[in-house]
Amino acid sequence: MPIIINGNNLTISQFMRVVRHQEEVQLDHEAIIRINQANLYIKNIIASGRTVYGINTGFGKLSDTSIPHDELNKLQENLLKSHACGVGPHFNKEVVRGIMLLRVNALAKGYSGIRFKVINQLIKYLNNDIIPAIPEQGSLGASGDLAPLAHMGLTLIGLGEVYYQNKLMNTCDALKIVNLKPLSKLEAKEGLSLINGTQAMTAIGAITLYDSLQLIKIADVAGSLSLEALHGIRDAFDEQVHQVRGHHGQIVSARNIRNMTANSNYLTDQGECRVQDAYSLRCLAQVHGASRDALNYISEKVEIEMNAATDNPLVFSDEKIVSGGNFHGQPMAIVFDFLKIAISELANISERRLEKLVNPSISHGLPAFLVANPGINSGMMIVQYAAASLVSENKVLAHPASVDSIPSSANQEDHVSMGTIAARGARDILENAKKVLAMELLAATQAIDLRPVGQLGLGSQVAYHYFRKTIPFLENDEIMYPYLNKAMMVLEDNQFLEEIEKVIGRLD
């Protein structure tokens, strides 16, 4: 069954089913009625001879320039051509599918004035997996994602390039393969309706957010294995400790760690071996929990934006068409900067746990760099170097994009969001954080094998054995990058978490 799009209730889960698993979409019948009604308003405005921004005027600083009736269609085509100024590598397939889906959903609200035929063309591309080639760079995040969306819009009229079956080709060549025809023209406001919006930044950010919600579970798993490998003190995760502070994310992280380490005899009691653990162990739930709360907040904001009307002007009736600023990306720019920080901290504390594992002065009895014969072997020494490099790179990437505005369009558009840069930064930080957590998992399982054999926690035991199916104990130095790559594959394998949850219940 296709996912029904009506402009109002698209969820992150549904979004991911379309962008990652290529489920088909279909417009809701009521949405089609709204779309047709708004298009009729546009036709009425043109027939009345009124001058209205976006319909029969220029754009940006040229908004005071009136356009003759016989050039309105050309105006819209020229808008897409002139705004297709993206540079750099192309967005991957998931991101572009997300951009297309979110633009369909925004237009389905019926405040655009665009014809149903144009929206349906975009849906046909999406359902046939015809993916516009959209460069990553070039958006200021206001007036929306103009450059990326212009590259998308061009393909609807047969211009530009697309990927079909993973091959880059001219749009018309791909359309011939699937027996589709491009739109013959764009009518009044339709070019503008395709490019005014925050769909590029929101698509990148939504995918990054979804994967971050999975990564924070992995962080709890990795932290639990390190806690056991370092004979951590279980008292710090006592339920009452976290309840009296009251932060939901912290409470959840502590519960996950208790469930992961239940019945473990690797953990110790307060005062048994030492009175306190270092913060990277003792404050694990507080740090992970803060990121978890941030992700939940960001999820709320992203779902609002996914269902938002971001056109300019907005068409409410043939007497009420309002030029506003819903295209401005600031609401997303700030939350994606927040997302960057939340993900960065998962990697920061993971690298500190990794350092504790490899450093013989603070690893509570583990051999130097987690190798049985250090000296002739360097073991995991440079694994920690690589992790330190990644977390330092994340600190640079985490610098907020949303505080950096620059004027454009002859100072008419004098404050912009840089939201797409924020979203791209969050995506890059996520990839680095995954690698750091994979390194921690590699080190923690190695450390466990260097301890006397004991009873791991219920969840930790599942995680350990799943990891060991792919990556063996390293007796001596090996070429390390293949093992790091395999560790990443385990981390990205959905079955890894599924097997753990079969034993301990859901990791929230």
Structural features, described:
- By secondary structure, this protein is mostly helical.
- 55% of the residues lie in helices and 5% in strands.
- The strands form four sheets. Strands 4-6-7 form a three-stranded antiparallel β-sheet.
- Helix 9 (199-229) packs antiparallel against helix 13 and helix 9 runs parallel beside helix 14 (330-358).
- The two termini are 28 Å apart.
Q: Main sheet: which strands, in order across?
A: 4-6-7
Please estimate the helix content.
40-55%
Biggest β-sheet description: 3 strands, antiparallel
The quaternary state of the protein chains shown equals single chain
Features:
mainly alpha; 3-stranded antiparallel beta sheet; 19 helices; 55% helix
Give the arrangement of secondary structure elements:
Blueprint: E1 3-5, H1 12-19, E2 25-27, H2 29-48, H3 72-83, E3 87-90, H4 93-107, H5 116-127, E4 131-132, E5 135-137, H6 146-156, E6 161-164, E7 167-170, H7 171-177, H8 190-195, H9 199-229, H10 239-243, H11 248-261, H12 279-282, H13 284-306, E8 314-315, E9 321-322, H14 330-358, H15 381-397, H16 419-449, H17 458-468, H18 481-492, H19 494-504
Parallel strand pairs: 1-2
Antiparallel strand pairs: 3-5, 4-6, 6-7, 8-9
Helix pairs in contact: 1-4, 3-6, 4-5, 4-9, 9-11, 9-13, 9-14, 9-16, 9-17, 11-13, 13-14, 14-15, 14-16, 15-16, 16-18, 17-19
